[in-house]
């Protein structure tokens, strides 16, 4: 499993945030081109995933279908991602799924529900999209992502996407590394990240709008 430490940065332009990261003594550099990430999140009818996150439940799961591309309706090569958290540690299971349409989420909802441990029926709850930059250290142990242009569309009231209804001006920085490198992260990486640590969750933020 790996650590995923998030930092929510407000009132600072994304490129300024990126420059701050590039000035880190560990030497973070671009490891992959910027791209747009699109997600549909799924939850139980009692909103278990949302409530567990807000309440800080240590062991929890989150279900989302992710695809990449600047046009959110152009869904190519989607993947179901099951995010599994155990306190600060996490891992991700990834499963290929068939392409679908945002105008009809019934089929993909049934597919995602089939991956729940308790076979609970899930429902689509939130659509979001954002830009992501990828940086990493030369040793390959530490990766850092910068997310901005966060946009949200709630799927609880309507299942038919028209346009994003909410925009979050914050920037979300996330440091990711394997559990075995935590001592090095604490001594060499975290002290030089000048942002406040946060339990920031895009899923919780989007539903809170």
Rg measurement, Å: 17 Å
pLDDT averaged residue by residue: 95
Specify the structural class: alpha+beta
Number of helices: 5
The succession of helices and strands, N to C, reads EHEHEEEHEEEEHEH
Notable features of this structure?
10 strands; 8-stranded antiparallel barrel; alpha+beta; Hypothetical Protein Pfu-838710-001; 209 residues; single chain; 19% helix
Structure, described:
Helices cover 19% and strands 43% of the residues. By secondary structure, the protein is an alpha+beta fold. It has a single domain, classed as Beta Barrel (Hypothetical Protein Pfu-838710-001), CATH 2.40.320. Strand 4 and strand 5 form a beta hairpin. The two termini are 31 Å apart. The model has no long low-confidence stretch (mean pLDDT 95).
Concise summary:
The chain contains five helices and ten strands; from the N terminus they run βαβαβββαββββαβα. With 209 residues, it is of the alpha+beta class.
